[in-house]
Amino acid sequence: MDAKFLLSILVKNEAGVLTRVSSLFSRRGFNIDSLSVGETESSKISRITISAKGDDYVKEQIVKQLRKLHDVITVELMDLDNTVIRELLLVKVASKKGELSDIMHAMNIFRAKVVDLSPASVTLELTGQSSKIDAFIDFLKPYGIIELCRTGITAIGRGDYILKNVKEND
Amino acid sequence: MRMTGAQIIIETLIEQGVETIFGYPGGAVLNIYDELYKASDRIRHYLTCHEQAAAHAADAYARVSGKPGVVIATSGPGATNLVTGIANAYLDSSPIIAITGNVATSLIGKDSFQEVDIYGVTMPITKHNYIVKDVSKLADTIREAVKIATSGRPGPVLIDVPKDIQLAEGEYVPQPRYTPENGKYGRIPDEAIEEAVELINGSQRPFIYAGGGVIMSEASKELLEFAELIDAPIGLSMMGLTAIPGDHPRNLGMTGMHGRYAASKAMSEADLIIAVGTRFSDRATGSKLEFSKGKKFIHIDIDPAEIGKNIPAYVSLIGNVKDVLSRLNARLTACERPEWVREVESLKASPENNPELPDNKLTPKALIEEVRKHMPDDGVVATDVGQHQMWVSLYYNFSSPRTLITSGGLGAMGFGMGAAIGSCIGRGVKKTVLFTGDGSFHMNLSELATAVSNRLPLVIIVMNNGVLGMVRQWQTLFFEKRYSNTTLNRKTDFVKLAEAFGATGYRISNKDELPNIIKKAFETEGPVLVDAIIDRDEKVLPMIPPGGTINDIILEA
Predict the structure, then answer these.
(1) CATH class held by domain A3-77
(2) Nearest chain B alpha carbon to A17
(3) What is the ipTM, given to two decimal places?
(4) What is the rounded distance in angstroms from the CA atom of residue B503 to the CA atom of residue B178?
């Protein structure tokens, strides 16, 4: 059974490391749904968050193959019940006369923010789980989405669920 | 000590125990070659005719010697010519260090003359790779490359060095030579050993399936001890073919698509397969679903990612094969399985396992057996890819590990000449045999010049059937004899060709000439080529069709 899963990966902050990680997925025939990357508390280490789909075989192979990469320090299949998951959305919607208040109303419910306003459009920012972002986009569609971008998922364990302390057990 | 980058490269290689380099000079490695010239009393460079052969030579050198093989090529075309050789080393887990020059860092990314992003190109076919943009990191990069290439599951590492880094000055501080720490990989919990022992003790028909990992970890002794303890037969993957002597009573020979009947049959009859240093390639298993039906698996390998990749394992023991087998052997008590042994013995003696071949004809088997008579037990045999490779795997009675150098995972035609050269040099310039076909040999025959220039004692047996025999065999069996582009009909005279290169050439057209000409070939100094004319419809048998099972085995055609 294919199920969604989330990987958090600590990698050495070296040139080419993102290519190594992402090309491993295509080379082994696995798909990435979402990928985000950024520096961590140490400038020598980056953290990659990947959301993907697959059965237990795919999950296990991805983790093992990633662990073989020289630049990969830690690979963790995140425990979703113990993880804060967020994604950021920026969306530009056409603001025709009379519609703006509807949009503003929804914005309050979703706790989105206005980050730019022009006579023809309004640009909104929303942070949350992917499902919330999907719902917000669905709501906005009838108003006319001009432009949309999402950062991809990023995630962090709760409390003492700390990636650099996770011991790999093969 | 202040040194240029080029000097640091050579000094660090020497420091890490490298005595031999294969390669080809060019614009972006001129400085490295200049340092090689100055250090020629401490490190030996072998010039090939094409970078591909240099990469294959480095690969073969590593396999026969157990030391890393080193290859140098220039930027752009020099680097891309290495690609097949690097991929070959990757799929067969061979420790090579490829050093490429590149254009100066200021010219990178501008499509400069002879610029190729070889770092990007080789990322999926190396264990790890580097582009060095800071001369102060050069020496440590090379040391780390040696460590990565030779530790754990070995593999190729590429280091791309832009020209300005070769020219830049940096500090060189000598370091000790790296030696792989095998024990590091043996962190197996006691419970896993106990589980394995329980499975083995509970098994009626255990079968040991051994691969290249046994050779790499030098675990032949431990493997045979293990087989005696649990009273089980051993089947081998092609990469594991030299792990134990061919005529050892426990040895059923090669399994898989072109494996021996008894080996494949016993494997299918087994209730427990203990896979040792092997990865269940599709060529070895056929249909994975049918293959694994009704069986349990214990998988021993150094690479955790191999566990469960192709076949789900009941128990996995991750570590150096030698260490794992030693631990198992210490824990096991000898047992006997007379029924299973009888069954295996009868399979071994069955007519299916001992096909009768015509003895008035120059068959591949007769040719291989004749060559075997002249080779010492530790003599190295290299092959190209195709029917001849399978015939060698089936009929050459190997006696000692690291004596078969063949392109297993990649199946790269053209591998043979470079491999034979590297094998010969890696064994201190000893008599080395190359079995090749007229198809494979045509790919890289220019390397005859390399063999002649270095007076290498190569005996090159060209099994000449005028066709691409393996593909033809598939066309015969699965494509209703539509021989699309496999009938070569080339007019190449291999005897004259050998002579043109400065080698010696002989031809064998019938069986009567066989003993005499092979004898003469082995008495000849320097490289010698034997053009052996065989029937174009000779087949590699048995054959289990791709994705098939033992029930689909083709024994005669």
Answers:
(1) alpha beta
(2) B123
(3) 0.90
(4) 40
